[in-house]
Amino acid sequence: MAETKREIERKYEATGPNGSTGTDGASDGPGLPDLTRVPGVAAVLDRGTVDLDATYYDTADLRLAASARTLRRRTGGDDAGWHLKLPVSAGVRDEVQAPLSDQVPRALADLVRSRVRHADLVPVIRLRSARAVRHLMDADGALLAEVSVDSVRADRLAGGDGSAEWTEIEVELAEGGDPAFLDKVEKRLRKAGVVPAGSASKLARALAETGTEPRVRSAKPAPPVTSGDHVLAYLRTQRDALVELDPDVRRDLPDAVHQMRVATRRMRSALRSYRKVLDRSVTDPVGDELKWLAGELGVDRDREVLTERLREAVAELPRTLIDGPVRGRLRTWSAARRGGSRRRLTTVLDGRRYLALLDTVDGLLADPPLRPAAAKPPQAVLTKAVLREFERLTDAVDAALAADPGTERDQALHEARKKAKRTRYAAEAAKPALGKPAKRLAKRAKKLQSGLGEHQDSVMARATLRDLAGQAHAAGESSFTYGLLYGREERTAELSEAGLPGWWERAVEAAEALRRTR
Length: 518
What we know:
By secondary structure, the protein is an alpha+beta fold. The chain has helices at 63-66, 106-111, 113-116, 180-191, 202-210, 227-250, 256-273, 280-315, 326-349, 352-366, 378-402, 407-434, 436-474, 480-516, and strands spanning 3-13, 43-58, 70-75, 81-89, 92-98, 122-137, 143-156, 163-173, 195-196. The chain has 14 helices and nine strands. It has an eight-stranded antiparallel barrel with strand order 1-5-4-3-2-6-7-8. Strand 4 (81-89) and strand 5 form a beta hairpin.
């Protein structure tokens, strides 16, 4: 069973030939100044020295290291086992832990699958550290942070046979602590001549000093110039989001499924909208696979949104209007459906089809099937593509406004919503090239999409409420509350339909402004 903890820490170089403290004299151990002078610290407790032995695993071409992820098997200390560290932000990582075993635990291997793909995880670095530990305590005896001085030896196990030694200082915030406290510790360390470490992790330093470093994508790629440059830059952003969000979806983090689905849809939309830039005979099969993935992600996401909508609706009702075990029935309905969809989604992410899609997208971006328009300046090419999507949206909105109330209009409004989304994504992709006009259209299309999305959510909520009411009636329970909620959803749909002309008018204005820039 894997467990996760949030790790907030900072690393520093030990100064002087032996990690000496600087010029103030007093110290709390080798390499450390007197830390009782840090505001809020009442005592510094010596927790002794522990020997740590860690073997780091990666692919032969160091794909994990290139993306600032580390996977290790460590013995010694109070947290021996397997550790996978995933970056969250600067100095913040989630550490997913699993018990000691001879092989990489499946739970951790799955969390790096989108980066590793079919490559083997092999030992690449062994780090042995003698860690001198100090605990910074407040006046109430609570732990504020752990400070350690690590004497490290690194040995290369793959890709070379070098070794290196160094000493570093690590300050890790106590669980639930205020990150601002680390600023106070750093101020004290800097005053004593201790400086931040040049490497983000021990593994990064070990790789740099014992052999070949991982190849990391340029943080600042060349700015896009042509139409093809802009479209490919947008597609790369969505591909990176897919890979990045994969472990978050597996860990069931909030909004991860939604964000991954959005990245999938954005990529597919760009392939369809910019077919004058990329050859459809190559991209259409990729788009079909992206549609499949979005559909699989949608099974979980749609139910998640619907459950939250109904829960909020029930919570807003006075207690006198809740007749029967409404909340309990909703919980049962949600748990039964979500459990099945979660298992299905995990199976999808572990499957060959999904990994093949990621490989195919990588191949498309590495060797893009560019058409002649890709070499042209973006203003004309991208503007034309965005306006083409807006024309499709115009037809869909006209059809919705002309449709008869009821099922026919509901379906027409849903189609208009999908066209609004495509217009929005096309404008977002063109925004770096076309500037404010594309940004404004994307914003107006999003507003239209959101309004129509509220209408579609109401349609889905009413269908679910009918089912729940039927289940309640069959069980001898009152269906009054479900009928009340159904009526409120009908009113929500009416308000969405009433808002359509205004949203549409503003979208038309934005499209005309973009058209004039041509």
